[in-house]
UniProtKB/TrEMBL annotation:
<comment type="function">
    <text>Required for the efficient initiation of filament assembly.</text>
</comment>
<protein>
    <submittedName>
        <fullName>Flagellar protein FlgN</fullName>
    </submittedName>
</protein>
<dbReference type="InterPro" id="IPR007809">
    <property type="entry name" value="FlgN-like"/>
</dbReference>
<keyword id="KW-0282">Flagellum</keyword>
<keyword id="KW-0966">Cell projection</keyword>
<keyword id="KW-1005">Bacterial flagellum biogenesis</keyword>
<dbReference type="Pfam" id="PF05130">
    <property type="entry name" value="FlgN"/>
</dbReference>
<keyword id="KW-0969">Cilium</keyword>
<dbReference type="InterPro" id="IPR036679">
    <property type="entry name" value="FlgN-like_sf"/>
</dbReference>
<comment type="similarity">
    <text>Belongs to the FlgN family.</text>
</comment>
């Protein structure tokens, strides 16, 4: 059963590395002048990989249970302390996940900066001009003057 856990960890590591690669593509798209063409495909790939990772995590937790360990990080730490192969793969997975987390955090910041820039650009375009009665309204007509 430990062989199955090691195999799951290897597959999980590969999937996290693929996810990190997609995040790097996302970084490049977010720093491009016009990212809109690239982002939908990137989001689709990220979503698919998240689904794969969720299934692998569930499989890992089931394998831990079969070995008599609790689910999650605590179970993995216990399993890793009892088997060098598990420990090696767990360490690789943790390092890959940390790299992906850093890139994802960076991408979140890039999105925040872009949104802030867009908000400022909109505010600059929406100049507050005092409404005068001889200005055309949104319908293209001069509004009737009140009080006359």
């Amino acid at each position: 059963m430990k062989d199955a856990l090691v195999a799951t960890l290897v597959e999980e590591y590969s999937t996290v590395e693929a996810f990190a690669s997609i995040l790097t593509l996302e970084t490049k798209a977010l720093t491009a002048l016009s990212p809109l063409e690239q982002l939908p495909g990137i989001v689709e790939k990220k979503t698919a990989l998240i689904g794969v990772l969720a299934k692998l995590e569930a499989a890992r937790d089931a394998q831990l249970a079969e070995l008599g360990f609790p689910a999650g990080r605590s179970g993995m730490e216990l399993a890793a302390s009892s088997d060098a192969r598990i420990a090696t793969q767990w360490d690789l997975l943790q390092k890959a996940a940390e790299r992906a987390r850093r890139v994802n955090t960076n991408n979140g910041e890039l999105i925040r900066v872009r949104m802030d820039y867009n908000q400022r650009a909109l505010q600059a375009l929406q100049v507050n001009v005092p409404r005068k009665t001889n200005f055309y309204g949104p319908d293209g007509r001069v509004p009737a003057q009140s009080g006359l």
